[in-house]
């Protein structure tokens, strides 16, 4: 039944003025459950004007006062944690246990953002020259826009908004039209805690929203989590308008299994990495590489464990993996099975759970089960393409150096994980792989909230990463003041200045 009416949130209140709307679905059942507005040019303009006007006051609000609202966001999320998790499990269809975990992680990120006063402290360099000192402070920049993907509606909010507003900026957030329900509840929390009008605005729509930001003088910067092609397009737009940008792109992550691996540890992490969030996350493992000594054993254990993965409704407590986000996403996975086998060169489909026996209410849901293709090669499209689903390829490697070379050949550089008890392997892998995040005996190498999150190469367009000190640096700018002091008693006893053959280009 279509009863969830998603609304834009501008200047501290919900709006329901858009005549154009798109359906919102429950991927677990395939049912239409509501509708999402598609912002008009007038709505986009109003959101920018509102955020720009709010910035003038918000940026001058004391850091202590701003932090009360960040604490309020945290407390509001704790009060409504189960409701927020159920919103994610409904329209994004992440399994309810994972949805709860995502909400908890965002609470932890907000708690990290509560350290903002310490992280934006400046510096003073005293007596650079005679009676001259320098002061460095970090200040806000203005209005930021953020674009979120469908797969982590809460996490991306946490990466962007708490750090942006804590440092004195205002924000316009565009959730995915496929999973907007979490942010609607967050807007209710903003109202509950009395967040000043216009500090955070949420509007829904498509590419016309960020395209309106690039050359608007009122916008200071743009943030994205999405695909690499989208990140590159946004980088070009931001360059035209001289906008600051934080653009996290795509990935293709490998799990490397060495001969001394604790196999039980690997299998538990493999299941979470490859099938958690139905494989729809930027740190999902989608290639498993093992050395010859244990390759067959690894593959056998993977198949055995994957057969036991229960697929079904996101709210079913006995289910391990929920559906994909849409029928199009399911079809993309099915297409890549065919593409991988067509480019075979010896690869084989060894686990095929494309057809599932589901309860009647889930028959029209967007489901596909675990799929494993063995013996893929580096030239197989499955080795190089981010499929975003529970499709796993395996490859045999000669040794750790072979694995490192394969990882480094990728256009992406998001994450890579190795399973070993050998410290030399671990240190060599950590040092040599060209990825922004590395895991040792963990399948999801997502950093905790206190340190930056992000890849390198094609996985991060630009240099700024999310959360931690990296997030603080992105949302602030350094300003240096050079100042001279004079003795109020005048120049008594001071010699008159002499002509110099060399004049400094800095204050002296």
Can you characterise this structure?
With 508 residues, the protein is an alpha/beta fold. It folds into two domains: 4-249 and 459-480, 3-Layer(aba) Sandwich (Aldehyde Dehydrogenase, Chain A, domain 1); 253-449, Aldehyde Dehydrogenase, Chain A, domain 2 (3-Layer(aba) Sandwich). The chain is 36% helix and 22% strand. The chain has helices at residues 41-58, 63-79, 81-92, 96-113, 116-119, 153-166, 181-192, 208-211, 228-240, 263-275, 295-307, 327-342, 381-384, 400-408, 423-432, 468-474, and strands spanning 4-5, 8-10, 13-15, 21-26, 31-37, 123-129, 132-139, 143-147, 170-174, 200-202, 219-225, 244-248, 253-257, 285-290, 348-352, 371-374, 391-396, 412-413, 415-419, 437-440, 456-457, 460-461, 477-484. Helix 3 (81-92) crosses helix 4, helix 3 packs antiparallel against helix 7 (181-192) and helix 10 (263-275) crosses helix 11 (295-307). The model has no long low-confidence stretch (mean pLDDT 95).
């Amino acid at each position: 039944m279509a009863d969830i009416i998603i609304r834009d949130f501008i200047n501290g209140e919900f709006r329901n003025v858009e005549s154009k709307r798109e359906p919102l679905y429950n991927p677990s059942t395939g049912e239409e459950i509501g509708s999402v507005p598609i912002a008009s040019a007038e709505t986009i303009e109003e959101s920018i004007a509102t955020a720009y006007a709010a910035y003038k006051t918000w940026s001058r609000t004391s850091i202590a006062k701003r932090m009360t609202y960040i604490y309020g966001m945290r407390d509001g999320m704790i009060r409504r944690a189960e409701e927020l998790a159920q919103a994610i499990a409904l329209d994004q269809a992440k399994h309810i246990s994972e949805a709860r975990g995502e909400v908890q992680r965002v609470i932890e990120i907000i708690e990290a953002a509560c350290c903002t006063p310490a992280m934006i402290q400046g510096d003073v360099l005293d007596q650079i020259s005679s009676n001259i000192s320098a002061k460095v402070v970090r200040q806000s920049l203005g209005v930021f826009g953020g674009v979120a993907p469908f797969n982590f509606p809460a996490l991306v909010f946490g990466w962007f908004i708490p750090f942006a507003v804590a440092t004195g900026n205002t924000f316009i957030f565009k959730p995915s039209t496929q999973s907007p329900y979490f942010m609607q509840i967050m807007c209710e929390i903003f109202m509950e805690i009395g967040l000043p009008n216009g500090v955070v605005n949420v509007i829904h729509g498509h590419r016309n929203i960020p395209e309106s930001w690039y050359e608007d003088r009122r916008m200071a910067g743009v943030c994205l989590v999405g695909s690499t092609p989208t990140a590159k397009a946004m980088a070009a737009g931001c360059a035209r308008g001289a906008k600051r940008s934080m653009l996290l792109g795509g990935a293709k992550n490998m799990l490397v299994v060495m001969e001394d691996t604790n196999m039980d540890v690997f299998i538990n992490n493999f299941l979470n990495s490859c099938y958690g969030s139905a494989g729809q996350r930027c740190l999902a493992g989608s290639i498993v590489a093992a050395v010859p000594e244990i390759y067959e054993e690894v593959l056998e254990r993977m198949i055995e464990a994957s057969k036991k993965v229960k697929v079904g409704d996101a709210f079913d407590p006995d289910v391990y993996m929920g559906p994909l986000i849409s029928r199009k996403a399911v079809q993309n996975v099915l297409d890549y099975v065919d593409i991988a086998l067509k480019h075979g060169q010896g690869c084989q489909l060894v686990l095929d759970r494309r057809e599932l026996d589901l309860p009647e209410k889930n028959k029209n849901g967007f489901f596909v089960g675990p799929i494993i293709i063995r013996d893929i090669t580096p030239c197989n499209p499955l080795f190089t393409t981010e499929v975003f689903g529970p499709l796993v390829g395996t490859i045999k490697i000669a040794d750790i150096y072979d694995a490192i070379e394969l990882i480094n050949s990728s256009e992406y550089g998001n994450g890579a994980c190795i399973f070993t008890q050998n410290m030399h392997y671990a240190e060599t892998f950590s040092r040599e792989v060209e990825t922004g995040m590395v895991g040792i005996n963990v399948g999801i190498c997502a950093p905790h909230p206190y340190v930056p999150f992000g890849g390198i190469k094609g996985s991060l367009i630009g240099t700024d990463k999310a959360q931690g000190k990296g997030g603080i640096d992105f949302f602030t700018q350094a300003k240096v003041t050079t100042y001279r002091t004079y003795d109020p008693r005048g120049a008594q006893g001071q010699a008159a200045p002499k002509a110099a053959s060399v004049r400094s280009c800095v204050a002296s």
